[in-house]
Specification:
Strand content: 15-25%
Number of helices: 5
Shape: globular
Number of strands: 9
Structural class: alpha+beta
Order of helices and strands: EEEEEHEHEEEHHH
Helix content: 25-40%
Distance between the termini: 8 Å
Radius of gyration: 17 Å
Length: 198
């Protein structure tokens, strides 16, 4: 099975255990993405957001043909418990593709697509989308290492992930993307020899 993963945040520069077969590519499908999830480390992370305008995201081939292993690896990378059903998005691509994402995947020869499905989060409330004012207030009140971490996250997200919240953050705090280039995957991981197809 030919599997690909979508990305729009730290997966792009820090895939860790995610078994990627090559570099991230910028011509992904349109997804509703915004800086709307306060992460465990205090960063304002990107996530799928119903209030966001669709933008093109990134994608990369997985080096494994096992969907089970691909999903397990993404869960491990994102620290998503196995019993959290909304943590991952999975799409099997059919012969008669309908909808923009499936049509895009079929045009690339992708047979299965996975992505991080964690929702917006603010005030420790899963699924609540923060307003742009809440986002700015949250970032402005950060200090020390937590503020530095939050700034580093926003600056490392590629410039292509251009959203209204990001523009507001840049205008208010001066936090701009530091490097528009996509980091290369220098050491692809291939776990097929230890996996079974799923």
């Amino acid at each position: 099975m030919k599997i690909a993963c979508l990305g729009w945040g730290s997966l792009i520069w820090k895939p860790d255990v995610l078994p990627l077969a090559g570099n991230w590519q910028a011509d992904g499908p349109l997804m509703q993405i915004e800086f709307c999830r306060i992460g465990d480390g205090g960063e304002l992370a990107t996530a799928i957001c119903q209030n966001a305008d669709p933008i093109p995201v990134f994608w990369a081939w997985m080096s494994t043909s096992s969907l089970a292993l691909a999903c397990k690896s993404l869960r491990k990378r994102e620290d998503i418990p196995d019993d959290r059903v909304d943590g991952l998005g999975i799409m099997l691509i059919g012969d008669k593709a309908v909808g923009g994402t499936e049509k895009w995947a079929r045009s690339k020869g992708i047979e299965a697509l996975i992505w991080t499905g964690l929702p917006a989060r603010v005030d420790f409330t899963e699924g609540r989308i923060p307003s742009v004012e809440e986002v700015l207030n949250y970032l402005q009140q950060l200090s020390g290492d937590k503020r530095a971490h939050a700034r580093s996250y926003i600056e490392q997200v590629p410039a292509q992930i251009d959203t209204p919240y990001r523009r507001a953050i840049a205008d208010t705090l001066g936090w701009h993307h530091a490097n528009p280039q996509i980091p290369a995957i220098t050491t692809p991981v291939n776990d097929d020899k230890n996996s079974q197809s799923a």
